[in-house]
Amino acid sequence: MKKLSKLLTTAAIATGLFAGAASAEDMRIALVVKALGIGFFEAAAKGAEEAASELGGVEIIYTGPTDTTAEGQIEVINSLIAQNVDAIAVSANDTDALVPTLKKAMQRGITVISWDSGVAEDGRQMHLNPSSNPLIGNMIIKLAADELPEGGEVAVLSATTTSTNQNIWIDEMNKVMGNYPGVEVVATVYGDDLADKSYREATGLMQSYPDLDAIIAPTSVGIVAAAQAVVDAGKVGQVNVTGLGLPSEMAGAIESGASKSFAIWNPIDLGYSATMIAYHLSKGDAVAEPGASIPMGRMGEVTLDETNSGAMADPFVYDASNIADFKDIF
Amino acid sequence: MSLAETQKTAARHIPDRLTTPLARTLKSWESLLLLVAIGIFILNSFASPYFLNAWNLSDATFNFTEKAMIAFAMALLIISGEIDLSVASIIALASTAMGLVMQAGFGTPAIVATGLVTGLLCGAFNGVLVTRLGLPSIVVTIGTMSLFRGISYIVLGDGAFRGYPSDFAWFGQGYVFWVITVELMIFAILAVIYGIVLHKTNFGRAVYAIGNNATAATFSGIRVERVKFILFLLTGLMSGLASVCLTSRLGSTRPSIASGMELEVVTMVVLGGVSILGGSGSIPGVVIAAFVMGLVTFGLGLLNVPGIVMSIVVGALLIGVIALPRIYQNLRRT
Question: Tens of pLDDT along A51-95?
Fold first, then answer.
């Protein structure tokens, strides 16, 4: 213990020497993810690297804990603070638990933003959502309507009646129905995000509405089950399944033709945009305040709302042309 | 005292590290571990320019202080031949209880008391099952590991308690003076207390005796079940204390809090030279092991080594430090 305290004192003196040597380097932006080894985040890291090479003079530190714990993320962030990185962009395992640590980072002059999974307001300068509820609501009906130039009957297969996200998206979808004349929502059913129940509900829809043209499933469980139900009912080509899904799970449905296209956020774009925002905020040529616009390179710019959060873009559309590139990623 | 006779007849000797001669101390586990710790410290200072910074090292202590608080009590428990795998779940339950008390509008003293009492009750529950019903502690605590955290999940679901009073943050975010955090101070005080209890009191000797030969200990007049029950109580209490610190540091409670921490605590204890079979070990060893684990994870973190590689290093370190003396012994014997 005595030895340690002695070393601690010498340490304080030594720091001054080292600090000078480290300052002339590149800007270091840390991309902190929920856990390492997850395809979605590996893809986001690719996007971050893309942004770094586009900007030049930026080093990306891609890091995160072994499993998705807040404690693990705090350890990682503590070591990033110790390294005095320029910016931290984090997808949080816990909205609240990271706040004290991230506050400390901001006190020491580090730019802190959250992306994908947010941090409470006082723990970050801004939050980047992959998309927004109105954009998602519009996208799911647009995907169905684009295949129905003459109009037609569509049905919604949602998660549970109480799923907050799905209910909001369906509401937003209903608000923009006027833009898609001739397209009519004939029913909304709930598969409870269970594969077998979603499958039965989808089958039931096709029996109740023989002229059904599309099933919109804004849930990754429902969309896969609905595609399977369409294949099993021999209705490929008659009923198009669309909505929100994961490329890895939907590759088969795209191949079989049960689904012409579906949407979800693109992790590469997300990592790219988060890096761009962190760069501009850290450099000081953009400010995170309500109403501000921050440039995101090829993704345009993000406008912040009153909680300092903003939406990146429309959900990204996956179809036969690009599914092969993404199905191994997430 | 019949304890001396037990010492002679028991298969293994009862070690008492404090009275060993200097030469034996130098060859001891603690010295080996201290060498490892110093080696890691020096390596780290060369590997990263950010390591030798008082504030950074102060931040790094959070990597081990909470775990070490539990590790002290766990060391005694393991020396006595028992184990408690429910400690991380006790943290979750205690944190949940504190959240409920906080929501009911009580202040910091009541919140802290709730955390400690919940820990004690959980420890008592484990202790009763093991000592009264005679169930194996590993089975009981694997059960309560799910039970305690399960209750937290029922109470909280996917929600969280937040909005702890600002003075509550002192435990996990406060400083006593300069870079010495409150948690580090608690750690240091506990190290002294547990060191004295284990190495200088009758109770401590009883713990060793039970771990070496519980039957012999019973016949020499030690109330084995009572000692073990107290050790479970202590482990529960320490988990409650760790819960206070961790909750204060995070400023919020989620049922997934501290998940997986029980194995890190056991790792720390075993790395500290405590025999997993019971009967031997020391508090100084656990203290050094805490620093070793903290320094390794922080040093590797500074180099941005992925967590997966980090767990491999900690695993290899554990096996290496345990295997080396054994290999050395075998070589000397042949």
Answer: 999 998 899 999 998 877 888 899 899 999 998 899 999 998 888
Contact flag B49-A75 (C-beta cutoff 8 Å): no
Q: How far is A71 from chain B (nearest CA, A)?
A: 7
Question: What are A208-218's pLDDT values in tens digits?
Answer: 999 999 999 99
- A37 contacts in chain B (CB < 8 Å): 308
Q: Which CATH superfamily is domain A133-264 in?
A: Response regulator (3.40.50.2300)
B5 within a domain of the structure (yes/no):
no
Nearest CA in chain A to B307: A66
B145 Cα distance to chain centroid? 16
User: Are β-strands A293-295 and A301-303 bridged in parallel, bridged antiparallel, or unpaired?
Assistant: antiparallel
Q: Which residue of A lies nearest to B306 if distances are taken between CA atoms?
A: A63
pLDDT at B313: 85
Burial class (CB in 10 A: 0-12, 13-18, 19+), A254: buried
Say if residues B249 and A99 touch (Cβ distance below 8 Å).
no
Domain that includes residue B240, residue range: 26-327
The pLDDT value recorded for residue A309 is 86
Contact yes or no for B307 and A97 at CB 8 A? no
The percent of residues above 70 in pLDDT, for chain B, comes to 92
Give the distance from residue B55's alpha carbon to the nearest chain A alpha carbon, in angstroms: 8
Query: Is B12 a member of any domain?
Result: no
Binary contact (B250, A75; C-beta < 8 A): no
Q: Exposed (0-12), middle (13-18) or buried (19+): which is A245, by Cβ within 10 Å?
A: buried
Calpha distance A62→A30 (Å, rounded): 6
Contacts of B179 in chain A (CB under 8 A): 8
Q: Which contacts qualify for B308-313: CB closer than 8 Å, 24 or more apart?
A: B308/A36, B308/A37, B308/A66, B310/A66, B311/A66
The dotted CATH code for A2-129+267-313 is 3.40.50.2300
pLDDT level of residue A153 (50, 70, 90 thresholds): very high
* CB contacts, 8 Å: B56 with chain A: 81-82
What is the spatial distance between Cα B61 and Cα B63, in angstroms, rounded to a whole number? 5
Candidates B59, B180, B243, B248, partner chain A, best to mutate (most A CBs within 10 A) = B59
Contact A78, B60 (CB under 8 A): yes
Q: Is the ipTM of this complex over 0.90?
A: no
Helix or strand run (H / E) with residue A113:
strand A111-115
Measured between beta carbons, the chain B residues lying within 8 angstroms of A97 are 250-252, 254, 257
The tens digit of pLDDT for each residue in B103-130 reads: 999 999 999 999 999 999 999 999 999 9
The domain spans of chain A are 2-129+267-313, 133-264
Identify whether B9 is part of a domain: no
DSSP state of A194: -
Per the structure, the count of domains in chain B is 1
Is B281 in contact with B322 (CB distance < 8 Å)?
Answer: no
CATH of the domain at B151: 1.10.3470
Kindly state the tokens that stand for B204. 């401590």
Task: Write down the pTM of the prediction.
Answer: 0.77
- Runs of H (alpha helix) within B104-223: 108-131, 137-156, 170-173, 182-200, 202-212, 214-219
